[in-house]
Write a structure and sequence with these properties.
Layout: H1 7-18, H2 22-31, H3 36-46, E1 49-51, H4 52-57, H5 62-71, E2 81-85, H6 90-98, E3 104-108, H7 119-129, E4 136-140, E5 161-165, E6 187-190, H8 195-202, E7 219-224, H9 227-237, E8 245-250, H10 252-263, E9 273-280, H11 289-299, E10 308-315, H12 329-336, E11 346-356, H13 359-379, H14 381-384, E12 392-402, H15 406-412
Parallel strand pairs: 1-2, 2-3, 3-4, 4-5, 5-6, 6-7, 7-8, 8-9, 9-10, 10-11, 11-12
Length: about 425
């Protein structure tokens, strides 16, 4: 009876079971033993995501999985999403060299130092990076050794999404791979550290071409903590002409000086979404003044086709600037003016008030919450009045309770 069901129906049954979490995976495993019709779709789901990183850290026997692949090599064809570390055992290398259909690869470094990866692991990486199916790479945490050879990325001909969360720079050392056309990235994330990105842009291949092609970049997520970070972002924007979405994490002390470069949309006519996250950590004089002036200039730009604008403000407990007492009328007038941001459909304005777990701090934060709601009704009147019904205005304030150890609390006491 089951054998007569169409394959897509079997797929739907397995997908519904997987939604049940761990119990669902056990049900899928049980289904794989019921009849031959279920074997292939069950294997495709059970083996689609493999995490060798945590398996290795928890001393699980990767050798058993390596032996399983040796007995039935077809199982390796189902693995599409892979997490692994760079301090792999011989068994891990055996597994990696058998994988041929990986589309998503996340590499984790060592949390215990800078020990270089083994020659076998380097061979496995060259194999993985050269797979035609690979479209997504995330480098997470600190990578061992001096960093990865930059030209390793040039062997990823179909790579479109690159995420750099590593503090290590790339190196100019050759990994002895065949260099094809530089991969044309569509999405680039480097929110936590720009060290790896800077080295990636500075290094050229042996044929003088860039390691990656950024000319067709559509999504950029970057942390602009220092002035050098802004210069780096300006360098990226100078080579891309198709950017659609920009997410930027900014500290207020650089907002006044460099934000104009980020919000200059005259050279980015394709830009449709801007999301800005600001962290306020201390005593700053009117940190929003520079930002609002830039928004005003951008709003009346003739070529402005922006459809979505988001401002996320994280206020830390030791920040003494009074946001609720600030005059927000100028921001309200700009975003409520029908002649400004004519294509804008969604404006999100969100505050996250960081507070400590002690009752005293939470009580003060809850009082601040009430003032923020009052600020919305008194000052953001044009945005709140639905004067422009085609524009969706989302305003919210929430608490984020922080738990820290007493030693750190004592060190921070001078700021609180």
């Amino acid at each position: 009876m089951i054998e007569s069901l169409p394959y897509n129906i079997l797929e739907i049954i397995i997908q519904e079971l997987e939604l049940a979490g761990e119990s669902g995976r056990k049900a899928v495993l049980a289904c794989s033993s019921t009849c031959r019709a279920f074997v292939h779709p069950c294997r495709a789901h059970l083996f689609s995501r493999i995490d060798l990183y945590w398996a290795n850290r928890w001393a699980q026997d990767i050798g058993q999985f390596a032996d399983l692949l040796l007995q039935d090599p077809s199982l390796a064809d189902h693995v599409r999403w892979l997490d692994c570390g760079l301090e792999g055992t011989d068994d891990m290398v055996r597994v990696l060299l058998q994988l041929k259909n990986i589309c998503s690869l996340t590499l984790h470094g060592s949390s215990h130092g800078r020990k270089a990866s083994s020659p076998g692991m380097q061979q496995a990486l060259i194999h993985l990076f050269g797979l035609p199916s690979l479209t997504f790479i995330k480098l997470s945490a600190r990578l061992p050794g001096e960093g990865l050879p930059a030209d390793l990325l040039s062997s990823c001909g179909n790579l479109v999404d690159l995420r750099l969360n590593s503090n290590n720079p790339f190196t100019s050392a050759s990994c002895r791979t065949i260099l094809g056309t530089p991969p044309r990235l569509l999405s680039l994330h480097t929110e936590k550290s720009t060290v790896a990105l800077k080295s990636l842009l500075d290094i050229k291949r042996s044929d003088a071409l860039p390691i990656v092609d950024l000319s067709h970049l559509q999504t950029l997520v970057i942390g602009c903590i220092t002035h050098e970070d802004f210069n780096l972002m300006e360098k990226i924007l100078s080579v891309t002409r198709k950017l659609v979405k920009l997410e930027c994490h900014v500290l207020p002390d650089v907002t006044h000086h460099k934000l104009a470069r980020m919000l200059d949309i005259k050279s980015l006519p394709t830009l449709r979404s801007i999301s800005i996250t600001l962290d306020f950590l201390g005593d700053i004089e009117d940190p929003f003044s520079g930002l609002i002036e830039e928004l005003e200039e951008m709003g009346y730009e003739r070529n402005n086709c922006l459809q979505e604008l988001s401002l996320l403000v994280r206020v830390w407990p030791w920040s003494v600037f009074s946001f609720v007492d600030r005059d927000w009328k100028k921001l309200d007038n700009i975003l409520g003016d029908p002649s400004a941001f004519q294509c804008l459909k969604i404006f999100t304005f969100k505050f996250i008030l960081k507070t400590f777990s002690e009752e005293q701090f939470q009580s003060d934060a809850k009082e601040q919450l009430k003032k923020f709601e009052d600020m919305k009704t008194r000052q953001l009147t044009r945005l709140s009045s639905q004067e422009r019904p085609e524009r969706d205005f989302n305003f919210s304030v929430e608490l984020d309770v922080i738990s820290i150890d007493p030693g750190l609390r004592a060190r921070l006491s001078m700021f609180i």
